[in-house]
Amino acid sequence: MTIPRYDHFINGAVVAPSGGEYMDVYNPATGEVIAQVACGTAQDVDAAVAAAQAAFDNPAWRDQTPAQRAALINQFIAVIKANAQELAYLEIISSGATVSRVGSLDILMMIDACMTMADVVSSYPFVSNLPAKIIPELADIKVVKEPIGVCGLIPAWNIPMVMYINKVLPALAAGNTVVIKPSELTPNTSTRLTQLLAPLLPPGVLNLVNGVGSVVGEAITQHPGVAKISFTGSTAVGKRIQANAAASLKRVTLELGGKGAAIVTPDADLDATAHGVLYGVMLNAGQACESGTRLLVHESIYDAMLDKLATLANGLKIGNPLAPDTVIGPMSHAGHGQRVLGYIRSAVEEGARVVCGGERVEVLGCEGGFYVRPTVLADCHNQMKAVREEIFGPVLAVIKYKDEAEAIAIANDSDYGLSAGVWTGDVLAAQRIARRLRAGSIWINDWHMLRSDVPFGGYKQSGTGREFGIAGLEAFLETKAISTAFQRDPAKKALTYGIVHKHPALA
Question: Which of these ranges, 22-26, 54-58, 188-192, 486-490, has the smallest mean pLDDT?
Answer without folding.
Answer: 486-490
